[in-house]
Specification:
Length: 618
């Protein structure tokens, strides 16, 4: 039984006690104490009952403690001024915790769409995109592990202005379609073509007219749009190599051009007109456009009526006009007109599907989920509010709990300059470049520790260390905190980092390998783990279910990242102070070995949820 299970047991027992005592029914929340010497869990229920009954909370706490029929190993303790604490027997907690690491089933089959990464197909992924990927992929892993039926979508904006920019480069600025040998196509297009064209607009205004013309062509079936598809798919395939390198995977690629081709926008646009959510502007700065006037909770007073252009004066749809029907499709609020085809096989062996306008193949069900989570940075807050508000208006349904924007702060290059990464300006650090630099450092360290290992093995371990370092650095911060990307910091292989967690896992594996046996835990041997640092590690292991539950409910993988570091630190303190293989008392040796086994299993579960590989040897 984990601490989460104890919380559920205490809640159930307390509810029964209150009912039998004739006390008013109240909501019971069982929480963790900050000081284990006063018990591991507590409730403030006596305060709630005291307000209702006009009695002193401590008196109610004493009364409840006397009436509760607790199971073996649990003790209820009233504390001033009215808390009711619960202490779990150390041997009971150790025995039950060391038998299994349990991931809670929270989803009960709820369907969830998670959209993340969604990098415009005109450049390689930079570290800012990497934060989006790591957050989204971790959340998808957590929700899937906790019993949700997940669909992970990578949205491909292959019809926007950014695509028009690179076509200007190829068709009108003389950039060759094939880069020099050895250069990834996505890096070439982003670093040279996209940046170069945006610099040329200032000196060659005629190019902007070319872009407008191309943008209109992208919404039809013609030579330009077909060329755009060819180029964007080439870029996308290289982007996916980087995504897969970071241990991410997807179920579906959703192409924006197909949303346009299938005219998913038309029916919703008609509904918006009827509901007067969309209106035509016949004067002013927005003359000739269709705008959405739906109010949102994030209305900017500088933006009168919260207007947002849906259709430009030249008749082309803006990105919000494409995002609205796609969001409706996610929640099953509009007909699924897509066909689906096999795009590629992913490194884990699964099929990556893509939306299609042609006859499709047998495929899993897509769209129509109970919840849709869109991972995108906080600069899109208002846009996402407008989308949800529009969908609520046309569907007459509250969608705040179903259409969820998971916003996060941006990645900047230095604390002093606070420079945001920008593909248009060429100010960024590519994910591949960052991984390569970290991997080179890790290779040197790995070779020092393993002088006789093969080069192939060293390179493999160095790559895993690099991925762990980057993923951990991007996920361990609160979502509302700006991440400062610093090469020197990211290259550190100690401290609160992914590699430190990996080293802790490998240390546990070495102990188990040397032991040469799998221990069997008993209640009597578990009671021998009575040292303070042993009890602390056991208590932390018992919190696995709660930490996963918190991360799933709050959509916050940071909680698990912090948990892995804390757990690793506690294990290393245990390793330094409690001999395992050298312990002469066989029963105590067996108990400590069981603790090592459970740490290894628990850490393996959590690091997998964070997309971090844990090699058994480093």
């Amino acid at each position: 039984m984990t601490l989460r299970a104890y919380k559920q047991t205490i809640k159930r027992i307390l509810e029964n006690t209150i009912e039998k005592s004739g006390l008013p029914e109240v909501e019971i929340q069982v929480k963790e104490t900050t000081r284990p010497e006063f018990g591991q869990l507590y409730v403030n229920t006596p305060f709630t009952l005291g307000k209702i009954l006009g009695r002193m909370p401590i008196d109610i706490a004493v009364e409840l403690a006397g009436d509760i029929e607790l199971q073996e190993g649990l003790v209820a303790i009233p504390f001033q001024p009215g808390y009711l604490n619960f202490r779990i027997s150390g041997s009971q907690l150790a025995f039950k915790t060391l038998r299994a690491s349990i991931v809670p089933d929270l989803g009960k089959g709820e369907t969830v769409i998670i959209e993340h990464t969604s990098v415009n197909p005109n450049k390689a992924l930079h570290v800012g995109h990497g934060r989006n990927l790591v957050i989204g992929d971790s959340i998808a892993r957590i929700l899937k592990a906790t019993g949700h039926i997940t669909t992970v979508i990578n949205y491909v904006d292959d019809s926007g202005v950014q695509v028009a920019d690179i076509l200007v480069g190829f068709l009108h600025s003389g950039y060759p379609v094939w880069p020099s040998k050895g250069t990834k196509f996505d890096q070439y297009v982003g670093d040279e073509v996209y940046v170069g064209v945006n610099e040329q607009y200032a000196s060659t205004p005629s190019l902007e007219e070319k872009r407008k013309s191309i943008l209109q062509e992208l919404e039809g079936d013609n030579e330009i749009s077909r060329f755009a598809k060819e180029i964007t798919v080439r870029i996308l395939r290289d982007q996916l190599k980087t995504c897969w390198r970071l241990n991410s995977r997807y179920d579906l690629l959703a192409f924006e051009s197909e949303i346009i081709s299938l005219r998913l926008w038309d029916s919703l646009f008609r509904k918006m007109k009827r509901a007067r959510i969309a209106k035509y502007e016949d004067e002013g700065r927005l003359k000739g456009t269709w705008v959405v006037t739906q109010k949102t909770g994030n209305t900017d007073p500088k933006n009168v009526d919260d207007e947002k252009v849906l259709v430009r004066s030249d008749g082309t749809a803006t990105y919000i006009a494409k995002d609205i029907p796609f969001a409706a499709w996610k929640l099953g609020l509009t007909e699924d007109k897509f066909s689906y085809s096999n795009f590629s096989r992913q490194p884990d062996g699964s099929i990556l599907w893509r939306t299609s306008t042609k006859d499709g193949e047998n495929h899993p069900k897509f769209g129509g989920a109970n919840r849709a989570i869109t991972v995108i940075d906080v600069r899109q807050n208002r846009l996402q509010e407008i989308i949800r508000s529009v969908l609520e208006a046309v569907s007459s349904m509250p969608l705040r709990d179903r259409y969820i924007h998971l916003g996060y702060e941006v990645v900047i290059l230095s604390r002093e300059s606070r420079t945001n990464m920008s593909g248009r300006k060429g100010v960024y650090v590519n994910v591949d470049e960052a991984l390569n630099a970290i991997s080179q450092k890790a290779m040197i360290e790995t070779r020092k520790r393993n002088p006789g290992a093969s080069q192939k093995w060293v390179e493999s371990i160095a790559e895993k260390i690099a991925i762990a370092a980057l993923r951990y650095s991007l996920v361990r911060q609160d979502l509302d905190k700006v991440v400062v990307f610093d090469f020197a910091e990211s290259l550190r292989l100690d401290g609160e980092t992914g590699p430190y967690v990996q080293y802790s896992f490998a240390r546990a594996c070495r102990i188990i390998e040397k032991a040469g046996e799998e221990p069997v835990i008993s209640e009597s041997s578990a009671s021998l783990l009575d040292k303070e640092w042993e009890a602390s590690l056991i208590l932390s292991l018992a919190k696995l279910g709660m930490r996963i539950e918190e991360s799933a409910l709050n959509l916050s993988p940071k909680n698990l990242a912090k948990y892995t570091f804390f757990l690793s630190s506690q294990f290393n303190a245990f390793y330094e102070r409690s001999p395992v293989l050298q312990e002469q008392n066989k029963e105590l040796r067996n108990a400590r070995l069981s603790l090592v086994y459970r740490f290894k299993e628990t850490l393996g579960i959590v690091t997998n949820l964070l997309g971090i590989d844990t090699p058994e040897k480093i």
